[in-house]
What does this fold into?
Amino acid sequence: MTVLTTNTNTTADTTADTSPLVCPVTGRTAPPAARPAAPPTTPPAAPFTERYLLDPSVNADPYGYLNSLRDHDPVYWSAMHRAWLVTGHAQLMHCLRAPAVSAERVRPLMDAVPEGAREDAERAFGILSRWMVFNDAPQHRRLRQVFQEQFAARSIGRYRAFVERATRAMLTRRAVPGRIGDLVADIARPLPALVFARWLGVPQAHGPSFWYWNARVGDLVLGAAQEEREYRTSLQSLVNLDDYLADLVKQRRADPQDDLISAVLAGGQIGKSVSEEEFVGMLTQMAFAGGETTSNLIVNAVLALLEHPEQLAAVREDPALVSMAVEEAMRFDGPSKMSIRTAARDFDLDGRSVRAEDRLFLVTAAANRDPARFPDPDVFDVRRGSASHLGFGFGAHFCIGAAFARLVAGAVVDVLVREYPGLELLDGQHTWQPSLLNRALTALPVRY
Ligand code: HEM
It folds into this structure.
């Protein structure tokens, strides 16, 4: 069964419209058969050698390697990672549309838990199984729809004034012009946390435990927990977070406030199409999904601008380019490197036989540099208009928090770019957190 035949109504790929030479299925350029053969101008490509994606040099700068992997084979079986590495834009879009590709992957996480921590795991994995990102249709649609209205750009827009005020207040306190600091610790980490907690409805006094639990849940889901002790801490943190949010939901039911939880409850679906337990389970996903990724977008966007002074100058001259710069940073060096999926059944992908239960690493960071979709993909160009990047995913699981992330990152980049003419990178090596999924700097030393 091929992706094309299982999914006949969604196979039209927008890449097909951009050039008659680009195959809508493979995204490869058709061989120029009608053209006279030209003498080769470049030496033949070096043979491809697979590398470990967490190899420190690949992790530090993945794009050269990902480009060679995609050029070699955009659908590559990696014996090293025991997964299909899908790196072509068109192939990746096909996977995100294909019913044969499943987002359900709580079981492999459970299997990774060391024997000694298994007894703690049952409730925690019950909570994870309610995360919309781990559900397929029709469950997924039922879960997601209760949040849809509150995450839409027009609802998020109500928070613009608050976000802009919070941004200015934090920058004034922590980023005094001329001072040397770390953009990650000073602004990029605390600001999204502050506005997110306010939006969700978590009182400031509860912030420290709320974010501690979230970070430990992140260790579990992103694979940083390795030892039995770390697993126990992460599993317990997820249970604590669930208990805390269940309590908050009860309080908001009794006494609604101006926050996300109250607004969703007012929608009237909780307790009907979605149980309160499912609602709380999904809330445990929100902060994990939105906190660190938004921080990383701020940092990666500022880094890209500071490393491309002519682009920074263009944005300073025309503030309307700020949002395009943030979007281009999502494509060029976005916070999310890949999404993971499993084959629900055997299917054919670009001529490859994917077997039921095979893992698929959908490497969006590579697809976002696919020359079949983006001309000169390794160039950071704020005027590109890179709307079709896959940095927020695509299809049913497209990031529900995209409008919120764009609002917060846009507010910070706007003030930093326009009101900090002396902003500069300080010399030093940049250290990227070792992660298959996230593209995250540990620090970004700057002079404000
Ligand atoms: C720059 C910041 C962000 C990035 C790069 C990002 C990236 C992503 C990506 C790539 C996906 C798709 C995952 C997949 O297909 O497996 C996703 C889904 C999701 N994101 Fe985000 N995200 C960001 C911000 C946020 C924020 C602020 C929130 C919440 C407030 C959020 C909540 C979610 C949720 C709930 C899903 C699952 C949606 C579904 O399964 O239907 N994200 N995000």
